[in-house]
Write a structure and sequence with these properties.
The complex is a heterodimer of chains A (115) and B (115). With 115 residues, chain A is mostly beta strands. Chain A has strands spanning 4-7, 10-13, 19-25, 31-37, 43-50, 53-57, 64-70, 73-78, 87-94, 105-106, 110-114. In chain A, strand 5 and strand 6 (53-57) form a beta hairpin. Chain B has strands at 4-5, 10-14, 19-25, 32-38, 45-51, 56-59, 62-67, 72-77, 86-93, 104-105, 109-114. In chain B, the strands form 2 sheets. In chain B, strands 2, 4, 5, 9, 10 and 11 form a 6-stranded mixed sheet that branches. Classes of the chains: A mainly beta (115), B mainly beta (115).
């Protein structure tokens, strides 16, 4: 059973389009995250959600909006895609409470290419 | 501004020998450190962690050492096996009592185990 799954795995689209990436976790975790791995290979936090509340938002453009319909899902919507949005996006989850938040389980990633 | 630095992009080690991966950090507020392992086309997988109240944590073939005064940690793998070939990310967080923090990652070190 896949613990954290993302769809699609690959996404190729034109500049200016709006797209979504879906994430689901079946671990019963309280917190979910989105990370971006850019061309320089840095993994950087974008958002985290705890009990359907946004906890952090690391200076991400407002074209990016996370949406959590329930505790098991955190989808990423991106409006007006730009060339610089091309990257691999990883979803992750963790169990709430102290140190355990650090042991995050990652999905396989979605490689977004904007042409 | 890289708060977590892995200065070796790659490391080649013979099978059976010890692999030592290094990581330096600059943020003195970090109090929890982790190592993640990543295979191509997969998400990072949690490997081992250490809190700032310890200087060593061991799990089977993997040992993490923390030197707070030097702001340095290292991962030792002994003996190294072919399946250990992967990219290893060092990560850190300011847990501060258990909030849903994102992790700050280094750029990763590609470990290659030679037969």
């Amino acid at each position: 059973d896949t613990a954290v799954s993302q769809t699609p795995k690959y996404l190729v689209t034109q500049m200016g389009n709006d797209k979504s990436i879906k994430c689901e976790q079946n671990l019963g975790h309280d917190t979910m995250y989105w990370y971006k791995q850019d061309s320089k290979k840095f993994l950087k936090i974008m958002f985290s959600y705890n009990n359907k509340e946004l906890i952090i938002n690391e200076t991400v453009p407002n074209r990016f909006s996370p949406k959590s319909p329930d505790k098991a899902h955190l989808n990423l919507h991106i409006n007006s895609l730009e060339l610089g949005d091309s990257a691999v996006y990883f979803c992750a989850s963790s169990q709430g409470g102290g140190w355990k938040n650090n042991e995050q389980f990652f999905g396989p990633g979605t490689r977004l290419t904007v042409l | 501004d890289q708060q977590v630095k892995q200065n070796s992009p790659s490391l080649s080690v013979q099978e059976g020998r010890i692999s030592i991966l290094n990581c330096d950090y600059t943020n003195s507020m970090f109090d929890y450190f982790l190592w993640y392992k990543k295979y191509p086309a997969e998400g990072p997988t949690f490997l081992i962690s250490i809190s700032s109240i310890k200087d060593k944590n061991e799990d089977g073939r993997f040992t993490v050492f923390l030197n707070k005064s030097a702001k340095h940690l290292s991962l030792h793998i002994v003996p190294s096996q072919p399946g250990d070939s992967a990219v290893y990310f060092c990560a850190a967080s300011e847990n501060s009592g258990g909030g849903a923090d994102g992790l700050t990652f280094g750029k990763g070190t590609h470990l290659i185990i030679q037969p």
